[in-house]
Write a structure and sequence with these properties.
globular; Immunoglobulin-like; six-stranded mixed sheet
């Protein structure tokens, strides 16, 4: 029997510090290693507890800087990163602006390590 996998999501585990500014700088390319024009997309990401649907952190489109050369910067302030240390899950979704197609590009563990200086 034939099968097809429509999942394009890449697995990427993220580890960051509680109460530190969060910055994840990414460069996106297509299968031919050409930069993806990200200006045609909106982005959203949520961090949740593994065992529930409780959202701990949301990255909205305004938390992303994107360009036509495939550069995507995801940022949250230190104040927004005051989250209890632990192991959570996240994913990163894109919505193509002209077609409204939604795709999950990244996902994995989101580990927050406790910090001493608060």
């Amino acid at each position: 029997m034939a099968s097809i996998n429509l999942v394009v999501k890449e697995n990427l585990d993220i580890t960051c510090m509680q109460n530190d500014t969060f910055k994840l700088d990414m460069n996106w390319v297509d299968g031919n290693n050409n930069p993806i024009d990200l200006t045609g997309y909106n982005f959203k990401s949520e961090v949740r507890k593994k065992s529930s649907n409780a959202i701990l952190l949301t990255f909205e489109n305004s938390d992303f800087t994107k360009d036509a050369s495939g550069n995507l910067l995801m940022v949250k302030s230190a104040a927004n990163m005051n989250i209890k240390p632990g192991v959570y899950v996240y994913d990163l979704q894109s919505t193509h602006i002209s077609t409204n197609d939604v795709s999950t590009w990244l996902g994995g563990l989101f580990v927050i390590q406790g910090d001493v200086t608060g």
